[in-house]
Amino acid sequence: MVLAIGTLEHFMKRLAATAALAAVATATAACGTSETAASAGPGGVYTTIDGSKQIDATAPINPFNPQGSTFAGYDAMALAWPKNDLMDPNLFYPGLARSWTATPDQGEVVVHLQPNARWSDGRPVTSADIRTSIGLAYTQGGSAYTVNAGAAGAAADIKVVDAKTVKIVQGKNRSNAFLRNVLSTVVVPDHVFGPLLPAGFWATLTAARGTGPAAEKAKTEITGLSQKVITFSPPEDVSAGPFVLERVNPGAALLRKNAYFYDAARIVPGKVKVLNYTGNEQIWNYLVSGKLDSAPFTAVPAAVMKKIKQTPGNAIRKGYSPVAASMAFNQARKPYDNVHVRRALAYLIDRAQVTKIASPEAGTPSVTTTGIHGSSAQAWLGAGLGALDQYKVDPAKADQELRAAGMVKKGGQWAMPDGSPWKVQIHVPASFSDWVAAAKSVTSQLNDHGIDSSVVTSADYILYLDELAGGKFDIGFWLMALGPSPYNIFQRVYGPANGWSLLAGRLNHAAPGKDGNWMGGPETVGGVNPGELTNRLNLATPEEQKRIVGTLAKLTNEQLPVIQIYDYVNTQFVNTTRYTGWPAAGSEALRLPAGVWMQLGMIKKSGV
Amino acid sequence: MKPSTVRGRPRVNAVTRRLAGHLVRGLVMIWVVTTISFVIIRNIPGNPVLGQYETLIERGMSPDQAERATAALYGFLPTGSLWEQYTGYMKALLHLDLGQSLSTPGTEVVTLIGSAAKWTILPVLGGTLLSFVLGVTLGVYAGVKRSGKLGDLLSISGSLLHGVPQYVIGLLVLAIFTTLWPIFPAGGPVDVEFVPGFNAGYLASLIQHATLPVLTYALASYGGWVLAMKSSVATVLGDDFILAAELRGLSRGVLFRYIARNAILPLFTILALSLGMLFGGAIFIERIFNYPGLGLLLVNSIGARDYALMGGTFLVTTMAIIVVNIAADLLYAVIDPRVRTGGVA
After folding, report:
1. Within B189-239, where are the H helices?
2. Which residue of chain A has the CA closest to B44?
3. Are A346 and A451 in contact (CB under 8 A)?
4. Which of A192, A412, B226, B275 could form a disulfide with B158 if both were Cys (CB 3.0 to 4.6 A apart)?
5. Which ipTM score applies to this complex?
6. Least CB–CB distance from A250: residue in B70, B195, B292
7. Quick check: B256 and A4 CB within 8 A?
8. Is B146 helix (H, G, I), strand (E, B) or coil?
């Protein structure tokens, strides 16, 4: 078999040649990278991740498309950028709006644009761009720009005061969310996107605010433009931000500095590379290899965190993250309709232990259940927080509560009042590793106390949400405390998931098991309607808000529609090898994209 | 020439009839699979818009922002009864319209599939061919020298690699070449800093990014080829014509060609199927290396409950397998005279 061996050798040579080709490719690519990096100028290439979406190279360069190839803070600009305040959702950093004023009831908001703002093609950013952007936002619906005239916080009129000043007037049903919704407006160039609005659009909008068949027809015409706006694909990026899209492929997007940006002198990097990711493990790889100059909040297991910390230059910035993980009950199911059972479970769960296992780096055990993130609760409730039941681990109290609920203990195991077995099933989506770990820790603790408990996972998050909304679970993990807006905080507990929803400006309550009401709580508790109070939060004055938040926090603490397990800690990553000037730990800017940090003049070259 | 023309005509007719039969069966199979996958896809539980809203919340968006980002998606959901949706889908299919994506709202499914297909072909085709050539060659050696040490070694290596799941090999390759010995990029198809085109930097980056996916695919499928070829060689070695060739004193080179040619025939069917599966992508490999091929597209479309995209990806995979099967069947008639002549060789 001489020839067989000869042929084998031949193929081995081919294999070696292939390997050599790969090696040459590696070397060439490495050299090429440095050449291309040099073209970015002395500012270099800033590498990061956009946590809000995965890159899709086929998506249009259009911020109205949820998957669009535009990146907030870099080439997609809002009028202003929200500060991560514990209580006030109306605090913003300037964006394309240099300043703004609002009447006390937010009935009128006047926006003054950056005087030097220009698009990347050199044209000035004017009030016409704002008006067109608002017109396009109406076609998408929601927040301040809804065609439902009766909806709270809907804009009623947009007036161009001059080339750099716009006045937006709120309708009669006033909401304190109006200012922040206006300031969050994403601005697109009128000379690119303007033709999407048909002639007579503004007259149609006025008609849509009326009543009767003509108004309905006008509404349909406006919302009918939605798909046209989303699918619009400009041939190239025209940006008013610090960067403009150069090219995008399925692995990354490359943006170059916009020489026309109104504050270009503050922008240090010559280019920005936004890497794509399909799962957290890819972000971990990028972090371990030191590729990322900054990365948004990413859940990281302890072992990986250790490796990330070992990479030269890597540092961690922690701050307030307005979200908490909780166990939510379906109160339409027995025995969870009984508050004593819910309280008993709260007295048995060691939240510190659960947090240590599930989210040691990015979580802090909830002080108690209020519906509000711990940091924010301190600010809202002050000394009142200490007066609430802390639900510290107390098996004796748990036993008392279970007996008060009529539960019986047989052979060391707790059973239903009629003696039938009580099996606690806690549901979590399989893809949320911290929730799975948390649920396992909780069931372990409950089993130790004679409550037969187990964890059930759903294959993915969408399936989980579907089953949850369908009322199929007794207990499921749930994200809550979405501040800083108090309405957003309590809407997670006393919103659609618990039966309350706004329809054409009117609050309705659906019966348990209907229209997405899977929490199944009572409509009123001791004469208090928590859904109504929650809805009131968007309309109330700051003083009234504080009173309502106090009432809702106390009610939540007593009734426990959810058991708050741990409050998330925003854990972000930066690398000081190439750049410095990162927002400090706890900064109100920390959760914003790095492009906004650059706009604020924070990012500098290392060693300069 | 006349006799051959006379003999050729029925042969051409037979091939045409065979091809026509395949085409009809293929079309029926495509229709059946499309219908079944349509019904399954439309019945997968999950509300895509609610899912997208909650995913945005989970990624740190405020409820207001998430609502703004998802409100318009309702316009992309299919409407009407299941039957109406089905007839609409089939009518559109006749015009090669696979619909619009929900996860990339408004983008044509055909565009998304076309974009992903080009990224699948390079690593999967490269990996398949590399493992085929390597596996078949070493398989012949393992078959001929099956009692030798190297033959045993090849068989054991083949069995071991055949038994290790693709994703385990992928993770190992990733850990070795991107973390322990970081000489290859961890993800993506090509460095975005290079201008796309026929230039050294771009092509080098393309090869560099494809190396680990190709290597993983080749390693994962190499074992199967070695074992299949070894087994096939062992069967051929027992055939009378090999004994006759040896008795006639044919050279080792001629003998090797006799063995290899006859032993490789059954592997062509497997190769054809592998090439068909190419369009299904290598799901785990693409996921691990963040390689934006059809496998990753399919996974993402299922995760987002993007009905049109799921249906389109299934359809393309189905069609590819059926077409490649037909091609393999026809090719078999060319490479194996026994098939062509109905066993009268």
Report:
1. 200-237
2. A463
3. no
4. B226
5. 0.83
6. B292
7. yes
8. coil
DSSP symbol at A119 = -
Q: Is B115 on the interface with A (CB under 8 A)?
A: yes
For tokens 């501040």, the residue is: A483
Q: State the alpha helices, DSSP H only, in chain B.
A: 2-42, 48-58, 63-70, 82-94, 109-120, 126-144, 149-163, 166-174, 200-237, 240-247, 252-277, 283-288, 294-303, 307-335, 337-340
CA gap A11, A227 in Å, rounded: 55
Long-range contacts of A160-164 (CB under 8 A, 24+ apart): A160/A127, A160/A128, A160/A130, A160/A131, A161/A110, A161/A127, A162/A127, A163/A124, A163/A126, A163/A127, A164/A112, A164/A113, A164/A115, A164/A126, A164/A127
Interatomic CA distance for residues A259 and A237, integer angstroms: 14
From CA B106, how far away is CA B115, in angstroms rounded? 15
Distance CA A346, CA A326 (A): 11
Helix axes B48-58, B63-70, angle to 10 degrees: 150
Q: Which of B335, B343, B302 is nearest to B46 (CA)?
A: B302
The two three-digit tokens of residue B306, written as one number: 């993007």
Q: Nearest by CB to A21, which of B71, B186, B207? A: B207
Q: Which CATH number fits domain B2-43+78-340: 3.30.499.10, 1.10.3720.10, 3.30.70.260, 3.40.1280.10?
A: 1.10.3720.10
Mean pLDDT across chain B: 84
pTM exceeding 0.90: no
> Which residue of chain A is at minimal alpha-carbon distance from B73?
A227
What CA–CA distances, in Å, run from A110 to A106, A119, A186, A206?
10, 22, 16, 20
Contact of A21 with chain B, judged by CB distance below 8 Å, is answered with: yes
Q: Yes or no: say if B161 and B223 are a contact pair by the CB < 8 Å rule.
A: yes
Which pLDDT belongs to residue A368?
A: 97
Interface of A with B in 265-304 (CB under 8 A): 271, 273, 275-279, 282, 285-286, 288-289, 296-297
CA distance A487 to chain B (A): 10
**CA terminus-to-terminus distance, chain B:** 22
Q: What is the CATH number of domain A44-75+241-313+576-608?
A: 3.40.190.10
B292 and A251 in contact (C-beta within 8 Å)?
A: yes
Q: Report the distance separating Cα B235 and Cα B264, nearest Å.
A: 11
Q: Are B50 and A465 in contact (CB under 8 A)?
A: yes
Answer yes or no: are the C-beta atoms of B310 and B301 closer than 8 Å. Answer: yes
CA distance A24 to A4: 30
* Fold classified for A77-231: Dipeptide-binding Protein; domain 1 (3.90.76)
Give span(s): CATH 3.40.190.10, chain A.
44-75+241-313+576-608
Least Cα separation, residue B63 to chain A (angstroms):
7
The amino acid occupying position A249 is N
Peptide bond into A484 cis (omega under 30): yes
A33: nearest CB among B63, B141, B191: B191
Residue to substitute from B52, B101, B192, interface A, most A β-carbons within 10 A? B192
Q: Are A11 and B137 in contact (CB under 8 A)?
A: yes
Residues 95-134, chain A, touching B (beta carbon < 8 A): none
* Residue A603: half-sphere exposure toward Cβ, Cα within 13 Å: 29
CA–CA gap between residue A155 and residue A168 (Å, rounded): 7
Compute mean pLDDT per 10 residues along chain A, 608 residues long, and list them.
40 48 47 53 93 91 94 97 92 97 95 98 97 95 81 90 96 91 96 96 91 90 91 96 96 96 97 91 89 91 90 94 96 96 98 95 95 95 94 97 96 95 96 93 97 96 93 96 92 95 84 92 93 94 95 97 96 95 94 97 90
In chain B, where are the structural domains located? Answer: 2-43+78-340
Q: How many beta-carbon contacts under 8 Å exist across A and B?
A: 251
Distance from CA of A306 to the nearest CA of B (A): 14
